[in-house]
């Protein structure tokens, strides 16, 4: 039997938790690491947080965009003139440009973002329209049968 690698689906979607829980239980799949490293966590029943490790990037270096159920994060450091004259003996801090895309489930929207201590936090919420939410219908008493009277037919 062939084994399929579903890790790209785990890494790039938000809001499909139940599906991936079933896949993970059946196959024991783990997401593969990538640059920049990130976490996707559930913070509530319909709330999520994507955290990216973006050490060395400032607010001005990062753009966040949502379009057609896709969340795109781009990072590119602005090169300062004094940075070009530096000579590194060892450069272990990655400062390369990146673009990370996440596929969002229907009705998942980004509500905010913050950058703190080299971590970029993006908060997402699933906002289900009122018309699509489950509604409880109360069961009332049975309606009484309508009394009917026989119709008299008159001959003409």
TrEMBL record:
**Keywords, comma-separated and alphabetical:** Stress response
Q: Entry's InterPro entries?
A: A-crystallin/Hsp20_dom, ACD_IbpA/B, HSP20-like_chaperone
Q: Is Magnesium among the key words of this record?
A: no
* DNA-binding in keyword set: no
What the entry lists under SUPFAM superfamilies is as follows: HSP20-like chaperones (SSF49764)
**What range(s) does the SHSP domain occupy?**
29-142
Give the similarity note.
Belongs to the small heat shock protein (HSP20) family.
What's the protein called, per UniProt? Answer: Molecular chaperone
């Amino acid at each position: 039997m062939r084994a399929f690698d579903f890790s790209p689906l785990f890494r790039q979607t938000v809001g499909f938790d139940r599906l991936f829980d079933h896949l993970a239980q059946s196959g024991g799949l783990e997401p593969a690491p990538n640059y920049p490293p990130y976490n996707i966590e559930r913070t509530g029943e319909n709330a999520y947080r994507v955290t990216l490790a973006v050490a060395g990037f400032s607010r001005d270096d990062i753009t966040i965009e949502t379009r057609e159920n896709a969340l795109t994060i781009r990072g590119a450091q602005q090169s300062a003139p004094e940075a070009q004259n530096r000579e590194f003996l060892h450069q272990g801090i990655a400062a390369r440009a990146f673009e990370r895309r996440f596929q969002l489930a229907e009705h998942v929207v980004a509500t905010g973002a913050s950058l703190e201590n080299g971590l970029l936090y993006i908060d997402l919420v699933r906002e289900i329209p009122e018309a699509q939410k489950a509604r409880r219908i109360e069961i009332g008493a049975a309606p009484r049968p309508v009394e009917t009277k026989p119709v008299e037919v008159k001959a003409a």
